[in-house]
Each structure stands twice: as structure tokens, then as C-alpha cells.
Amino acid sequence: MKRSIPTAMVGGSFDPVHLGHLHLIHSVVTSTHYRRIILVPVGHNHFKPDARPVSVHHRLAMIDLSIASYRSLYPDDPEIDLVVDDCELQRTGPSYTYDTVKDLYLKYPIKGRLAVVMGDDLLPKLTEWNSYEALKELVTFVVIRREGNSQSFSDIAADLVYLDNPRLSDSSTIIRNGCRSLQDGEHLPPEIARLMPPEVASYIEDEQLYRS
């Protein structure tokens, strides 16, 4: 059985995973005591209801490639357990953070409270999340800065930790839009490829993902 260690979950579409995601993990690892990071790809993103991500197979494959490249990108980081969990992809119907948190507590030996990493752009509606009152008793919310946003939160009963991370642009959207303009067989331009680990960029090219 794995040892009990401080654990944080990072949810998202990861469509595709990019260097900004990995830098976020780096920021969490170097600014906090969390040493297990669980990436949880969403099935249906409540915050982006019109999103139509590529298949689960492709997203999981790209996440696996990015996990393999993380250590080479940040060789001086503390040793961490970086894993992906597909619990939200396995559910039918709506999938909520509260359900995911309960699943992760059952599946992993977690020391202290599980951390839920979230953007400060989500803070204004955090109290409206499904089962929020129960959720806040189970987790610490680790709040990252998003580009152009600076939000506060008024529920003093919630456990929040704010990270002073660099603000990053939405590289997933830039990548998808850049790929849509390409013809079949056309290589990714350097300004798009450099937003991802080389292994992920090669995968997108080989599979011709995000083309119109």
C-alpha cells in the first residue's frame, strides 16, 4: 500500500495538456507541502458547457506523455507522485468535485486534507458548487491566479491557500485554434508546438488532432 502523503488534485479538460499545466504543478509543488498531484480530466466541464473535447483516449495519452516529461522539465523539484485518475471519465451523468473528492479519499492514502487546485476566476461562484458546505469540510482550496483576474472570497469557514504564481494565458485554446487553420499533413508551426512538451506536440501531429 502506498504511504500517506499530502495530496492535491488538479482538474481540467487537458484538451490538450500544455506547458502551462506543468508549470502550474511546479508552482504547487514548490510553494506548498503537497507531494502527490492527481490530475483528474473532466468528462463534462460545467464551466465550459459548449466545449467538445477530443476523445478520452487521446486526452489520456497526452496526459501520460506530459507526466513522463515533467521530471526533465523540472529536475530540481522535490520528488513527487504525479498520477492521473479517470474517475470523472468513468461516471455517467453529471460529475461534481464533491463526488471526485470522496472517490480520491477512498482510493489514495492522503495525509491531512486533500487540496483542490482551482483558479481565482472560479471563486465568485464557489459557494454555488454542488454540495459546497460538505465539500469545504473535506478539502483545502489552493487558489491560483488566472490572467487578468484578482478575486477575493468571503466565506471565512473555508480553508483557502492563495498561490502567488505567474499568470498564464489559455494555451489550450491557442493550440486548438492554431491547429484548426492547418491542412492535413501540415506540420505544427513552432509558435504552437512550443506551448507543449515535444512529445505532446508530436502526438498531436501524428494523430492530426484539432484539424478542421
Lay out the secondary structure:
Blueprint: E1 7-12, H1 19-31, E2 36-41, H2 56-73, E3 81-84, H3 87-90, H4 97-107, E4 114-119, H5 132-135, E5 139-144, E6 160-162, H6 171-180, H7 190-193, H8 198-207
Q: What's a concise summary of this model?
A:
The chain has 212 residues and is α/β, with parallel strands linked by helices. It is built from 8 helices and 6 strands.
List keywords for this structure.
6-stranded parallel beta sheet; alpha/beta; 212 residues; Rossmann fold; single chain; 8 helices
Any overview of this molecule?
- The N and C termini lie far apart (46 Å).
- Strand 2, helix 2 and strand 3 form a beta-alpha-beta unit.
- Helix 2 runs antiparallel to helix 8.
- The protein contains 8 helices and 6 strands.
- Strands 3-2-1-4-5-6 form a 6-stranded parallel beta sheet.
- The protein is α/β, with parallel strands linked by helices and 212 residues long.
- It has one domain: HUPs (Rossmann fold), CATH 3.40.50.
- The mean pLDDT is 90.
CATH first level: which class? Alpha Beta
By helix and strand content, what is the structural category?
alpha/beta
Number of helices: 8
CATH architecture assignment: 3-Layer(aba) Sandwich
Name the beta content range.
5-15%
Span from first to last CA? 46 Å
